[in-house]
Amino acid sequence: MQFGELDVQNVPALRADGLCRDAIDFFVANPRLRLIAAVDATGRPAGALTRTKIISKAASQFGRALYDARPLAEFMEPPRFVVGTDQQVADIANQLAATDLTNAPDGYILVDHLGRYAGIVDGLSVLRALLKLNMQLVDELNSEVAVRCEAEKEARRLADTDTLTGLNNRRLFIEEADRFVQLGTPAWLIYVDLDRFKYLNDKYGHAVGDDALKVIAGRIQDGWPGALVARLGGDEFGMLIDAARLEGSLDEELIRLHASLCAPFPSKPGAVSVGASIGAAEFPGDAATRSEWLHAADKAMQRAKSDHGGVRLFDPTIDIAEAKQARLTESLQAAVSENQIRPVFQPFYSVANGQLAGYEVLARWNGPDIGFIPGPGEFIPLLERLGLIDEMFWGVAEQALLACRKMPSHLKIALNVSPIQFANRLFPARLAALASRIGVQCNQLEIEITETAMFRDMTHTVSVLRDLSDMGMSIALDDFGTGYSSLTLVKELPLTKLKIDKSFIQSAQNSPSSDKIVSAAIGLSQALNILCCAEGVEDAATLERLRGMNCDLAQGFLLGRPAAVLGGGRSQALSAAG
């Protein structure tokens, strides 16, 4: 009997200059294969790779991370068992008889008459063939088969098991999730992510951290004896529960599990504890594919974590809101780079004579690509989070100054500045340079800030504002009265104007306390010899009340709405009131 007549496995060989991950992936994809040939550029065998050696490396702790990128040559064995396709099987009988069976080959590499790789013959196939030729080897061969099978079983167990906790690992978890989806079996997928685990590790060391993971693994298994439980990595665990085997309310069961996971446990430093964030998603109710199912459970878990722990079931509105936010973010980034955010101008007037005093520059953006029109209260904070607020400011400021460069020099151009921008010490110089290039005087510019600007670094912000003031720019404190340190700010800042928040102006008629606050703010500005502007003036009665209080300036829909073009002249509402 020739080797070519045996059950030849026509599997492709690996390149000898490849990486270890190639062999790992090959053995995982071909669970029955025990041997792979590595060939040189001419297709001739350069070495052999055995399943036992490769899988044991991959299944060790951090195996993939340690070995994936290592050269394949480090794990190759010499191609000792290379045979021709026309070679007789009986020729190796004496060679095997003199070999310790624990070192028997996993297989034989076949070559053609030119010495080029032609396939693999499994070692067990050769042994079975020799049984027919020599029945005296039967007992030893059966023992060898048992040893090999046990080794394969152990290798499979190691490949599917987390070595620290003894739970299933992520690979098996994903396989089982796939099986539920393929069979269409209703089930729940649950993610458990530990809170404060890094703190525990950092404070007490990895030994206590490992103990915590083992305790948590045991509590999850004890709480869900019928579930497939896995450690997915780090401090994250997963469960798969057949819906048909679920007794009672999932919500209640998860709450009980959460309480169990958060309970203290003994350790060398004493009793310690961690928190847990648990998210659950149902198949097929929340997802149609395995990828969607994992995503849904992760979203639920992340929502629980953002709520400082607890239990959350997947809510599709989470995805809807996040999809909207993602569309808004993407479109907003494009809008800033393409200068789509435009200035609009809201006038403010002298209450005494109705004359125009200037314009506040506001940013507006119509989001045509996202199906809705976000207001500045929505996209301005997002610009700050994305780090785009400075770029947007300069684009809007340049457009605004170009529009205002021909207006009378006594009118103010009020620009809203984000607190983030004050971190740049060069902000005043850049703004002055922009105004000079366009032909606008610095004394026409008014910088509006809110009290939140001071919470980052008051000393630095005051210094920047003084630089702006020294250049001739006015400084206005916006939304006055809504913060916690207004009087301190009034004392420290080089202010030229207070802007009373519209919440006080609009409630003053019906709220004596608001009315007194407005009166006090106007009195404070007069005492400090700075201007006072009332925001949100929307009716004639409010305007008349402000006139009686000797408020300097007013701004609001009654006097003029924000517009893309500059208005001018005397306010009709103020003229009528006068």
Structural class: alpha/beta
- Tally of alpha and pi helices: 21
CATH fold description of the largest domain: TIM Barrel
Taking the sheet with the most strands, its summary is: 8 strands, mixed, barrel
Q: Strand content of the residues, in percent?
A: 15-25%
Q: Which architecture of the largest domain would the CATH scheme give at its second level?
A: Alpha-Beta Barrel
How many domains would you count in the coordinates? 3
Overall average residue pLDDT: 85
Unreliable segments of 5+ consecutive residues: none
Give the CATH superfamily of the largest domain. Answer: EAL domain
Net shape: elongated
CATH class of the largest domain: Alpha Beta
Helix content: 40-55%
End-to-end distance: 118 Å
Q: Give the strand order of the largest sheet, numbering strands 1, 2, ... along the chain.
A: 13-14-15-16-17-18-19-20
- Rounded Rg: 38 Å
Oligomeric status of the shown chains?
Answer: single chain
Q: How many beta-strand elements?
A: 20
Domain EAL: 325-576
Protein name: Putative diguanylate cyclase
Organism: Hyphomonas hirschiana VP5
Domain GGDEF: 185-316
Describe this structure in words.
With 578 residues, the chain is of the alpha/beta class. It folds into three domains: 3-159, Roll (CBS-domain), CATH 3.10.580; 170-314, Alpha-Beta Plaits (2-Layer Sandwich); 335-577, TIM Barrel (Alpha-Beta Barrel), CATH 3.20.20.450. The protein is built from 21 helices and 20 strands. A hairpin with a 5-residue loop joins strand 3 (35-39) and strand 4 (45-50). Helix 1 (20-29) crosses helix 2 and helix 9 packs antiparallel against helix 10 (250-262). It is elongated and about 120 Å long. Residues 325-576 form the EAL domain. It comes from Hyphomonas hirschiana VP5. GO terms for molecular function: cyclic-guanylate-specific phosphodiesterase activity. Pfam families: EAL, GGDEF.
